[in-house]
């Protein structure tokens, strides 16, 4: 690994691995300014649809298709969706599913990653490659058999069905294992000399040390589950179990032309996503980078 | 790197037992909810399965049936067109954006966040939002197209326009993610090479063509494979289609994944749906293997 680089172009958001180089500013050129202007313009065009969503959600009835700002900012649409549609129920269901899946996934994945990176046992290489190879399977590919298996296990139309099958994906194991491989072993050795068993070692030494990795994965898992649509759509039919994405799509059917309500619902559904995304952005991006290429 | 040299047999036994206990939840979960379904799909494809869970052995009938299913042929054609449009477009946009925001300028962090933002949203919301933006004659984007003669186009309702529109929305959704992957690749490029090229008088295009592009080979390959797999079997091939068009108009946006869903959950033909899945996976494995072979293990444009 090249420690001493002359990489003046390094612009990672995360703290640089090497200390920033002493200033060696390039002369500001017209090309740079033009590039900045273009980048800003492209970014604003990209988020235009989202800005439009925000504006429309606050427009009075009948103004959905009028241009520009609302003539009067109103909460009527949001109030309607929250009171006349079981939207709070959808939000609660999504929150339960996302939080529980994230918590259990983090626990189980870090346990598995710990075993695969820190413990020696026969067949660990085989287990690792078997688990990692399941990363190639996406939900649409196993949807039909997974549904039949879940149904046979009594997971149809209940919270367990929304939660349990979504916990398991090897991506989390893979990422945490990469992280654990870089731990120094000294702490564990010391703890073991003190007669600390593996479970306590895991709980009191390894888990606290893995907070940064767990943080980035929790952002990723929360977003994926909050945004999940296909699995909740097939595994539940009871409207009381509808998660927010499924609720939204039924809103689409009920209020086909009342876009003010549909968009107000969209706005509410998106708020937790944006909050989690903005708060956990750095972690999320780090984990995506390391998932992709390292 | 491992600690200690000779472990007592007792210690070894304890370590093995602990390892399996730690592995147990994920091992069982992955087996039941990922591995077994994979194998089960294969078995299912040889049965006729109805909605009540009655299985009837039909051998290869499901595969025979595919040959005379014009709707499946159509779904395959739609998917092929989608892949051929989506993969290069999202590649180009991802790379272009990454190059655009690679160097710093005021607010570069905000720009990157804004460009990535669509990818954090659910495809359901994205589908609903674009439907609204593109409503016939009234949608804001439809109106903005008026000066270009696009004002009367029904972007999602006209069989000619539906697929390109769906592709563009997919690109808008995923380009931020591709950008991030390319940014990571760009940041791994050793600055010395670029400086050397600059000293030698290489212009921007030459630096890109002779330094950046070859060094980005592994990243490009990764982006290509992941966007190929995502566009064939990813959620955007289902969620977005479901919300935007339900496969219409005239089945012009009915992807294979969407068709599988319909066969299973609208018509109750679980066995047939599983058989199509088997073919789809086989196809993906072959294409991925071929890509590996052609590029010599992912060395895409490093010569």
From TrEMBL, chain A:
Residues 1-27 are annotated as: Disordered. It is a multi-pass membrane protein. It is found in: Cell membrane. InterPro entries: MetI-like, MetI-like_sf. Its main location: membrane. PANTHER family: ABC TRANSPORTER PERMEASE PROTEIN MG189-RELATED, ABC TRANSPORTER PERMEASE PROTEIN MG189-RELATED-RELATED. One of its GO terms (cellular component) is plasma membrane. Pfam families: BPD_transp_1. It comes from Flexivirga aerilata. CDD domains: TM_PBP2. Residues 91-280 form the ABC transmembrane type-1 domain. This is Carbohydrate ABC transporter permease. One of its GO terms (biological process) is transmembrane transport. The chain crosses the membrane at residues 33-55, 90-114, 126-153, 159-180, 201-224, 258-279. The lineage of its organism: Bacteria, Bacillati, Actinomycetota, Actinomycetes, Micrococcales. The keyword Cell membrane applies. Belongs to the binding-protein-dependent transport system permease family. Keywords: Cell membrane, Membrane, Transmembrane, Transmembrane helix, Transport.
TrEMBL record, chain B:
GO terms for cellular component: plasma membrane. Residues 76-291 form the ABC transmembrane type-1 domain. It is a multi-pass membrane protein. It holds the Pfam family BPD_transp_1. The chain crosses the membrane at residues 20-47, 75-102, 114-134, 161-184, 215-238, 270-292. It is found in: Cell membrane. The keyword NADP does not apply. Belongs to the binding-protein-dependent transport system permease family. This is Sugar ABC transporter permease.
């Amino acid at each position: 690994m090249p420690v001493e680089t002359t990489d003046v172009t390094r612009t990672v958001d995360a703290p640089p691995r090497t200390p920033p180089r002493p200033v060696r500013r390039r002369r500001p050129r017209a090309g740079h300014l033009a590039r900045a202007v273009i980048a800003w313009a492209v970014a604003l065009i990209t988020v235009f649809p989202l800005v439009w969503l925000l504006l429309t959600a606050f427009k009075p009835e009948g103004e959905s298709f009028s241009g520009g700002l609302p003539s009067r900012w109103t909460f009527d649409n949001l109030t309607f969706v929250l009171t006349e549609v079981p939207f709070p129920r959808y939000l609660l269901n999504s929150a339960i599913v996302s939080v529980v899946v994230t918590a259990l996934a983090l626990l189980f994945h870090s346990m598995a990653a710990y075993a695969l990176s820190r413990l020696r046992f026969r067949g660990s290489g085989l287990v690792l490659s078997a688990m990692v190879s399941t990363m190639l399977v996406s939900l649409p590919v196993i949807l039909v058999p997974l549904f039949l298996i879940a149904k046979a296990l009594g997971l149809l139309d209940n919270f367990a069905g929304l939660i349990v099958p979504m916990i398991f994906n090897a991506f989390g194991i893979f990422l945490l294992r990469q992280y654990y491989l870089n731990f120094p072993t000294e702490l564990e050795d010391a703890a073991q000399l003190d007669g600390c068993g593996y479970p306590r070692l895991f709980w009191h030494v390894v888990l606290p040390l893995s907070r940064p990795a767990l943080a980035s994965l929790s952002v990723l898992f929360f977003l994926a589950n909050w945004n999940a649509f296909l699995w909740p759509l097939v595994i539940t039919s009871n409207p009381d179990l509808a998660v927010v994405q499924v609720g939204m799509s039924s809103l689409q059917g009920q209020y086909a032309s009342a876009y003010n309500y549909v968009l107000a619902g969209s706005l509410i559904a998106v708020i937790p996503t944006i909050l989690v995304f903005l708060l956990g952005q750095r972690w999320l991006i780090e984990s995506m980078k390391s998932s992709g290429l390292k | 790197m491992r600690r200690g040299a000779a472990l007592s047999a007792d210690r070894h036994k304890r370590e093995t037992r602990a390892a399996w206990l730690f592995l147990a939840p994920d091992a069982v979960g992955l087996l039941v909810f990922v591995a077994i379904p994979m194998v089960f799909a294969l078995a299912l494809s040889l049965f006729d399965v109805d909605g009540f869970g009655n299985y009837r052995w039909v051998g290869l009938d499901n595969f025979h049936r595919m040959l005379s299913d014009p709707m499946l042929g159509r779904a395959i054609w739609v998917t092929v067109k989608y892949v051929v449009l989506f993969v290069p477009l999202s590649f180009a946009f991802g790379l272009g954006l990454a190059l655009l925001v690679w160097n710093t300028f005021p607010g570069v962090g905000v720009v990157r966040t804004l460009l990535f933002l669509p990818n954090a949203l659910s495809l359901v919301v994205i589908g609903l939002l674009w439907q609204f933006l593109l409503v016939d004659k009234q949608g804001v984007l439809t109106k903005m197209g008026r000066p270009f003669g696009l004002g009367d186009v029904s972007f999602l309702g006209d069989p000619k326009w539906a697929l390109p529109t769906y592709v563009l929305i997919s690109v808008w959704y995923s380009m931020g993610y591709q950008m991030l992957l390319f940014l990571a690749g760009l940041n791994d490029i050793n600055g010395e090479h670029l400086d050397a090229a600059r000293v030698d008088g290489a212009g921007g295009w030459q630096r890109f063509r002779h330094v950046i592009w070859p060094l980005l080979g592994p990243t490009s390959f990764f982006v290509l494979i992941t966007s190929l797999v995502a566009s064939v079997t990813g959620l955007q091939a289902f969620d977005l289609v479901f919300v935007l068009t339900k496969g219409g108009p005239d089945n012009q946006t009915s992807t294979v994944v969407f068709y599988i869903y319909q066969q299973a959950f609208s018509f109750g033909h679980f066995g047939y749906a599983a058989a199509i899945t088997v073919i789809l996976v086989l196809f993906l494995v072959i294409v991925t293997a071929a890509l590996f072979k052609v590029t010599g293990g992912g060395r895409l444009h490093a010569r």
